[in-house]
Write a structure and sequence with these properties.
heterodimer, A: 229 residues, Rossmann fold, 2 domains, five-stranded parallel beta sheet, globular, B: Heat Shock Protein 90, five-stranded mixed beta sheet, 9 helices, 68% helix, membrane (chain B), transmembrane (chain B)
């Protein structure tokens, strides 16, 4: 795995884009080109990326009519950071992508800022939650869902409703930074449920390093780290 | 116009579905009781009677009179042939696969076998302990022709009796004594068989009639309930129109209200959305709340507002009153939205949260209700109204 991409030189954060529509690939390239730290090293219409060749893979979930959620599992198992990028925003698709080990889910209609932020966050093994993903997580009634605090639930719900962390912060009476912590903490809790993957273990390890969560918050973290690495 | 169309389609769908289910019920009742249950019992009874008669009684009589048959092989052959006919007929009858042609052919074959059997009787023995086949052929007629028109059975029984009379006449045995014995025999064989057939028919008709009456009553009841529901719905909608919409329309018609006035336009937009929601309230859809919210969004979209509607989490069944209240604030905010609105529904394990964020006027407020937790804030910095209402879900056991 690449060392510490967040502190890297301009253009040193390598990205691959896989999408079956060339117009989408070009659009993403245009979006990412405005961010000097990122350089797109590979584009393609099929999942033929060597795991580890790039820091982050942006993967369209629907390639030529086929959902490629399973491929996320394979890539994540090999340590490849994947951002699921899709026009399909059904709850099941989003949850399955994250469960398979995708670092983030970004809906295609969510725009440039969310995608760029997701890439930067993923490269540093840090969580980033788009409003769509927030709605999915707070609406998850699955049996294996992690236990979220009431602030975490509120932050996720209101982030989904308003799409403005500043609005959520004003409404909750806390700082934007705190809102962001609630949201990221909720996301990190999802990294420790379901099957383990190196990408999930990396996210958990980084979250503990950053002080976002303590090992006590994450039950089963140790085993996740061991089996993951 | 849109409202009319919506109302019509709603009512049609309600009435159609009621009609279909009523027809299904009627058919089920008719088939279930008459054709299957009663008919099966009669068929089973016949198969049992004929089985006991032929395999039991006939076998004993043939064996007992074995020495007097001339030749005995004919009696044995006739007995075997009738056993075959009986088996085929019984199986087909119990499988409800006995067609008209097959029934007639089998009955004819039974009659012919009866004639063959009679040729082996001793002279003048057509009515005696040895004459086993006469009565048996009659019962075979019952078995095979019970579901056929009555005249077919009468024809067979008549022909069967004629065979006996013919043999008696041929033997020159038709004296007074034999004649009275013949009449007595006809009475206890063909007479009883015909009476039995007649009674079964009467019971059959009675059962069918009872079923038809029951089905008609069930249909009537279903129709009445459906009519009642439709009527109640209509009255509720009418009451609503009278209280909320009529004053608005009257005001516009009498020029007391100015259509160019923003307040009037907003009121009209709200009432239009309420009506749209009201008309789709009784639609049969998997997610009524989303269906109703979509109807509200549709009205706003016609005004040029860009509406996004998103829903996450499995929506539970919500009572109409709760749906009405969840939608009420939504449509108030949507009615005042200028260019955009984000409408979200989230079902968490604890509650259903409906929210609208729109560039709507700061003063938009729903009427406070006791059922729901509603909050509304105007975000000065983002110049948008953020309205939210929640319906608590009872915790899962």
């Amino acid at each position: 795995m690449v060392g510490n991409p967040m502190a890297a030189q301009p253009g040193s954060l390598s990205v691959a884009v896989v999408d079956d529509h060339p117009v989408v690939i070009e659009g993403i390239q245009a979006w990412l080109s405005q961010e000097p730290r990122i350089s797109v090293r590979h584009t393609g219409e099929a999942v033929e990326v060597q795991p580890g060749a790039v820091d982050v893979l942006i993967l369209d979930l629907n390639l030529h009519g086929r959902l490629v959620v399973d491929d996320i599992g394979t890539l994540a198992a090999a340590g490849q950071r994947v951002i699921a990028f899709s026009q399909f925003t059904e709850q099941r698709v989003v949850l399955e992508s994250l469960e398979a080990g995708a670092c983030e889910f970004v809906a295609k209609n969510e725009g440039r800022a969310h995608l760029v932020n997701a890439v930067l966050a993923a490269a540093g093994d840090r969580p980033y939650v788009t409003p769509t993903a927030a709605g999915v997580l707070v609406g998850d009634r699955g049996a294996s869902r992690p236990r979220l605090s009431s602030q975490e639930r509120t932050a996720l719900l209101w982030w989904f409703q308003s799409m403005s962390k500043a609005s959520v912060a004003r409404r909750m009476g806390v700082s934007v930074h705190t809102v962001d912590i609630y949201i990221r903490r909720a996301r990190v809790k999802y990294a420790q449920v379901g099957r383990t993957a190196p990408t999930k273990a990396d996210m958990l390890a980084r979250a503990i390093e950053d002080g976002l969560v303590t090992p006590d918050d994450i039950t089963g973290y140790e085993s996740a780290a061991f089996t993951g690495n | 116009m849109t409202a009319d169309a919506a109302e019509n389609s709603t009512e049609n769908s309600t009435e159609n579905s009621t009609e279909n289910s009523t027809e299904d019920v009627t058919e089920d009742v008719a088939e279930g009781v008459v054709a299957t249950r009663f008919g099966k019992v009669v068929d089973l009874g016949l198969v049992a009677i004929v089985g006991v008669w032929h395999l039991g009684l006939d076998s004993m009589r043939v064996l007992k009179s074995w020495p007097v048959y001339e030749p005995p092989a004919v009696a044995a052959g006739a007995w075997l042939a009738l056993t075959l006919i009986q088996t085929v007929g019984s199986v087909l009858l119990l499988r409800s696969a006995l067609g008209a042609r097959t029934a007639r052919i089998l009955a004819g074959a039974a009659l012919v076998t009866g004639v063959v059997a009679a040729t082996a009787y001793p002279p003048g023995g057509a009515i005696s302990d040895a004459s086993w086949a006469w009565n048996t052929v009659g019962w075979f007629g019952m078995l095979l022709l019970m579901r056929r028109p009555l005249w077919e059975l009468i024809t067979l029984l008549g022909a069967n009796t004629a065979v006996t009379v013919g043999f008696l006449a041929a033997d020159g045995a038709l004296d007074h004594v034999t004649l009275s014995r013949l009449l007595a025999s006809v009475y206890v064989t063909a007479g009883i068989q015909l009476t039995f057939a007649y009674l079964v028919r009467q019971l059959d008709d009675g059962a069918r009639e009872a079923t038809e009456i029951a089905a008609a009553q069930a249909e009537h009841l279903a129709r009445a309930t459906a009519d009642e529901t439709v009527h109640t719905e209509r009255r509720r909608r009418y009451a609503y129109l009278r209280i909320r919409v009529e004053p608005l329309l009257r005001g516009l018609a009498e020029s007391r209200l100015d259509p160019s006035d923003t307040v009037v336009r907003r009121r009209a937009a709200v009432e239009a959305a309420r009506l749209r929601r009201l008309f789709v309230e009784t639609d049969d859809t998997p997610h009524p709340l989303l269906h109703e919210l979509r109807a509200c969004a549709d009205v706003a979209e016609r005004r040029g507002v860009r509406v996004t509607l998103l829903s996450y989490g499995e929506l539970p069944d919500l009572p109409p009153a709760v749906r009405r209240e969840l939608a009420e604030g939504t449509l108030l905010v949507l009615a005042t939205a200028v260019t955009r609105a984000r409408l979200t529904v989230v079902t968490t394990p604890e509650e259903v949260a409906v929210s609208v964020v729109a560039d709507a006027a700061a003063g938009t407020r729903g009427e406070p209700t006791g059922l729901l937790t509603t909050s509304s804030t105007y975000d000065q910095e983002e110049e948008q109204l953020w309205w939210e209402t929640r319906w608590p879900l009872s915790p899962a056991p």
